[in-house]
Specification:
single chain; 129 residues; mainly alpha; 5 helices; globular; transmembrane helix; transmembrane; DUF6632
Length: 129
């Protein structure tokens, strides 16, 4: 895939991921699939914090879609923080049976977002990749 084509797809991906982070994460955690996206036992304080952080990130990703190259560090932060977040959650899903459902829920979602953004980022902006 050519870099220009990747950049067009990156703009779309940033817009879609931004909206998912703003609307989709809270919907998944509270309404659609709380067991696959929330904590067990429920910890509303932490869940609200995570929803707030991801909604904020979503707004900035959505805005970054207009000029992704000007916001490369934000996009790379999103990639690497999703890898770290997903990795930590993966560890706890393995060692704590109450978190195993997350192996089918938010853990794959974190890695998918990281991979999509990594793949679409122009090679000249890559950090560790």
């Amino acid at each position: 895939m050519q870099q220009e084509e990747k950049l067009r797809y990156l703009k779309t991906a940033l817009s879609v991921i931004g909206v998912i982070y703003i609307i989709g994460v809270p919907a998944m955690m509270m309404l659609i699939w709380p067991s696959g996206w929330g904590w067990t036992p429920a910890q509303p304080e932490y869940e609200h914090m995570i929803m707030g952080v991801y909604a904020t990130l979503g707004v900035f990703l959505y805005l970054a879609a207009k000029d992704p190259l000007a916001h490369a560090s934000l996009i790379w932060f999103t990639i690497w923080s999703n890898i770290v977040h997903g990795g930590i959650m993966f560890y706890y899903a393995i060692v704590d049976e109450t978190d195993r459902i997350n192996l089918l829920g938010d853990i794959p979602a974190l890695f998918i977002v990281a991979f999509v953004l990594w793949y679409l980022m122009p090679t000249k902006t890559r950090y560790f990749g």
